[in-house]
Every structure is written in structure tokens, then in C-alpha cells.
Amino acid sequence: MWSPEREAEASAGGDPAGLLPPEWEEDEERMSFLFSAFKRSREVNSTDWDSKMGFWAPLVLSYSRRQGVVRLRLRDLQEAFQRKGSVPLGLATVLQDLLRRGELQRESDFMASVDSSWISWGVGVFLLKPLKWTLSNMLGDNKVPAEEVLVAVELLKEKAEEIYRLYQHSPLSSHPVVALSELSTLCASSCPDERTFYLVLLQLQKEKRVTVLEQNGEKIVKFARGPHAKVSPVNDVDVGVYQLMQSEQLLSRKVESLSQEAERCKEEARRACRAGKKQLALRSLKAKQRTEKRIEALHAKLDTVQGILDRIYASQTDQMVFNAYQAGVGALKLSMKDVTVEKAESLVDQIQELCDTQDEVSQTLTGGVTNGLDFDSEELEKELDILLQDTTKESLELPDRPPCYTNSVPNPRISDAELEAELEKLSLSEPDLVPSSKSPKRLLEPTL
């Protein structure tokens, strides 16, 4: 099933096949159903109605956006969506539904909602419709004629925003007033035709971001100074600045043309000298000198005009800075409306008083509760010193190493022979216990 998200993956180009759904070529049965006409009323079969509308309505809007076409006609859509020689029979109903939802708007209705008096050619192009269209609307018939122009509302708004950003980032934005012809040249890449350009201007005018005025047979456009600001009407200052800008451009073009003429006279004099035609060379040099004098005079006038424009631009900048300062002062006054030096000093005194009170409370609490027992700190210190001295004496009287009693516990692993040998040693060490060979038993008895 086709969805608007798939449009981003389609290839760009004039062929709408780049954004067609897969079933366009694969599912004959479904495409036959989608190319059939709608029922007279949705209540007859709401499922079929919604299925067709869900397919064609997004496809029409995506086609308009991909092609960059703000203006749509039923005939053009039928030709764009032809399939194997067949045209969708329900496109008129789809356009009626888009008109009802406000996603499309009749070009004539859009023109009527905006002051388009400055479009001199709009009477024959925009506003007049065939008699059958007018009669059908008066009689309540909402069918869309094949030649009637419809406007894609959202795409037109996006185009208007694009044109406004394009102007803001161009050299023309140095002054809010610009010639309509210059603006048209600037927007040629975004607006494929003159009608689209004028519709975009009308949308900007509807949003109160531009205003158009005809001055001495030439249309001039005034832009709002900021993206969220509303444009003010064209006044005498705007007209005067615009005339100065036009004079500057005219003088610049004249200086450039005369410079080329002076260079041409110089080349003619050089060729005449090479050909030996002295008089012709002199005439060419005189013409060159006269042209250079005219150029100097025009440069002086151009410098004067540019100086005036520079002062005007500087004054506009100064005015912007002044307005910013004024707004800042107003905001500061509002924020310090109830703040005075006396109130500030009183507030500081109150804070200091509260801090002192808190310190006193803290000192009182840290004194603690003694439960009626008063201890003398000097006596406690003396007692602690005595305890320390006693501890030191005890540590000095302790032996360096505890005695080891290795023979206190007999080793059960010693044999009888070893015991007799050790006993003999003890007997030899004592003079009264000298063993006798005649009575060994009597020697053993006392020792046991």
C-alpha cells in the first residue's frame, strides 16, 4: 500500500512514476478498482470509498510537492496518472474532498481573499472564469471543471517562506523596498512560472509580510524587517530611498557604458596612429577626453547618492539600536518598579539581624545540658596525666621476652634409651648421686 513516507525514496524528475506505489504495475485487480469511479455517496460503501480516497488524495498532494507545482488542474492530473491508456475516473471526487478539507483552494477564491489590485493582468488570467463554472457554483454544483486551477495551500505557504528567506539572504535585503522585476529575477529558481511567483507574493501579502505598490508605472515590493514582524505601508521615505537606489543603479550602468566607450576611443586612436592617420587619431583622443570628463562628473554624482544612502542606512541602524535601548530601559524600569535604595538597606539590615539571632541560638544550643553535674576540667587533666604515667611505668617493667619452658612438657616421642641417657647425665652432674656398679637399682630409686 502506498504511503506519503515512500515519496521521499522516489527519484526526482518530471515523471510521476517515481512516486507511484508498487501495485501500480503489479496488481491489476486493485488498480482496476482504484481507477473506477466513486459511488454517488460514501454511505453506499464507506470501505471502498475510504480505500480509494486514502490512495488518491496523498498521491495528488505528493505529486504537487515533488513537481514543485502550486497550481493544479484536473486535466493535468488525469494526464499525469494515465495507466495503459486509462485515466482515473474518480479524480474529480478526490479534488472535491481536498477542497472540502481545505488542502486545496480554488485560485479565484484565493485571489478574492487578498487585495490583488496591483496585478493588472489578473483580471483576465485569475478572476474571470467560464460562465458554466460561475453558474455551477451558484446552483450549488461542486464538481471541479477540468480546466479550473486549484492551489495547493500548504505548498504555497512553504514557497512563500522559501522566497522570504531567499530575499533575506540576498543583497536586495539592504533596504526593505525592492523592485518587483528584481525580485522576480531573484526568485526564478524557486518559482517556475510567473503565475506561481505572483501567487507566492499574494500569500506573503496575506501573511502581512510584504506589501506591493505601483510607483510611476513600476511595481515595488516592501518586505517586513523581521521574520515575525508585520510590514508597514509604503511611505514617502520608502519611495525616496527606492528612487535613490534606482538612481544609483542608473548612474553605475551609465559609468560602465561610458568607460567602455572611452576604451573604444582609445583603441581607435591607436589603430589610426598605426595607419598613419594623425587627424583621425587626434579626434579619437578628444572624444576619449570628453568621455572621461563625463565619467568624472557621473562619479561625483554617484558618490553623492551613495553617501546619502550610506547615511540613510546608518540612521536606520541607529534607529534600531535606539529602539533596542529604549525597550531595554523600559524592561529595566518595569523589573525595578518596587525596588528602592531604602528598601534594599532595610532588607540588608533585616538579614544581618536574623543572622545574629541565628548565631546566638546556635551558641546556646552547643552549650549542652550537664544534668546538674559540674566537672572541673583541670582536675580531669591531672587525672589523665597520672593514668598516662602509670601506663608508662608498667610498660617499662615488662620483660623483653617471655621465658621459654621447653622441658616442662615431656616429648612423648622420646625412647627409653634416650631417657636413661639423659638421666645418667643428670646423675653425673650431682656428686651425691654417683652411680655404683654394685647396686644400680638403689641408684635409680631416689631419682624416680
Automatic annotation (TrEMBL):
Q: Which InterPro entries match?
A: CHMP7_WHD, Snf7_fam
Q: Where is the CHMP7 winged helix domain?
A: 156-224
List residues traversing the bilayer. Answer: none
Q: Where is this region: Disordered?
A: 1-22, 393-448
**Compartment(s) where it occurs, according to its Swiss-Prot or TrEMBL record:** Cytoplasm; Nucleus envelope
Among the GO biological process terms of this entry, one is:
late endosome to lysosome transport
Q: Which UniProt keywords apply?
A: Coiled coil, Cytoplasm, Nucleus, Protein transport, Transport
A cellular-component GO term for this protein: nuclear pore
Query: Which ranges form a coiled coil?
Result: 248-275
Q: According to its UniProt entry, what is the function of this protein?
A: ESCRT-III-like protein required to recruit the ESCRT-III complex to the nuclear envelope (NE) during late anaphase. Together with SPAST, the ESCRT-III complex promotes NE sealing and mitotic spindle disassembly during late anaphase. Recruited to the reforming NE during anaphase by LEMD2. Plays a role in the endosomal sorting pathway.
Q: How does it assemble?
A: Interacts with CHMP4B, but not with VPS25. Interacts with LEMD2 (via C-terminus).
State the family named in the UniProt similarity comment for this chain: Belongs to the SNF7 family.
Protein's UniProt name: Charged multivesicular body protein 7
Q: Which organism is it from?
A: Chinchilla lanigera (Long-tailed chinchilla)
Upper lineage is:
Eukaryota, Metazoa, Chordata, Craniata, Vertebrata
